[in-house]
Amino acid sequence: MKMKFLKKISLRGKFSLTFKNLILFLKNLSFLKLAVAAGVGAGVVIFVLFYLENFFSTKPRWQIYLQKADNLYNMGKLKEAKKLYLDIREKFPSNPEMDRVNFQLGNTFHKLGFIHRACFFYEKVAFKNSSPYFFEARYNLALCYRKAGEFDKALKLAEEMIEKFPESEKIAEFYLIAADSLLENSKEKEAVSFYQRIIRSYPLTLSAQIAYLRLGNIFLSKNQYSEAALFYSHLIKDYPRSKLQEEALFNLSRCYIAQEKIEEALSFLFMLLERFPQSRFLPEGFFLCADVFLKKGEFAKAREICEKILPFSGKNSAFAIKVKEKLAQSYEGEGKLKEAIKIYESILKQHPYIEDIYLRLGSLYLKEKEFVKAIRIFQAFVRYFPLSPDIFSAYLNLGIAFHREGIYSGAIKAFNNALRESSSREQKILVLSELANVCMKLELWGKAIDFLEQKISLLKKKEEKVKTQIKLVRCYLESGKLDVAKKNVSLILKSFPQNNLSQLFDVAHLFSLAGEEEVACSIYKKILQVFSGEEGKVALCLFKIAKIRQKQGKIKEAISLYEKIVGMLKEKSLKDFSEKENTLINLADLYYFIGEYKKAVKLYLEALTLYPKDESDAWLVYQIGNCYRHLDLVERAEKFYRDLNERFPESVWANLSQAML
Question: 531-608 architecture in CATH?
Answer without folding.
Answer: Alpha Horseshoe (1.25)
